[in-house]
Amino acid sequence: MTTLTRQDLNFGQVVADILCEFLEVAIHLILYVREVYPSGIFQKRKKYNVPVQMSCHPELNQYIQDTLHCVKPLIEKANHAKYLPSVLFLMQNEAEKVVVVIMDKEHHPVERFVFEISQPPLLSISSETLLSHVEQLLRAVILKISVCDAVLDNNPPGCTFTVLVYTRESATRNMEKVQVIKDFPWIVADEQEVLMQEPRLIPLKTMTSDIVKMQLYVEERAHKGQQNAA
What we know:
By secondary structure, this protein is an alpha+beta fold. It has 5 helices and 11 strands; from the N terminus they run E-H-E-E-H-E-E-E-E-E-H-E-H-H-E-E. The strands form 4 sheets. The chain has a 5-stranded antiparallel β-sheet.
């Protein structure tokens, strides 16, 4: 059996590619399941060997792709390592959370799908089982998202969404200096898009693999028909 160490491949790029592809599928599916957009703009496709709904709206797709393209360097950098003889120093994850926020007409959050991402400190991974094992775990997360409406209340009409990225302070400073995509700058989130008073917490799925750990949960506003207090 062949074994790959973090030195043998561009480990950060591999993990970033896997996670960003997954997050793209997950965001599309969340928007479909939670009926943020009409079902008519979605098409059934197959990802991770299961059917999923993906948007066919060009502007929406571009926004999601641009967002994840900006997130990717943060994930990639987090998986780079510094080596000394017999010692491995892993850099801390710069993107701590990726959050899909569904907001009502007043732009107050009614639901927050939170993806907490971290890396386990393992030194090696099996090249023969890596992708298939991770695919199985990600498939389980996708399946959980596809049925999450069973544990969530209906959202009010006219909802919109945004994607938030929680980073460490050092990453925020670097992001201010480097704009990954022209005309797609990072901005500090508006407080009303972030805060939710006494949300109900609904755990959906936790996955652990040799290359990534992820916890997905939903924060749901208690009374969706009522605006949060100002």
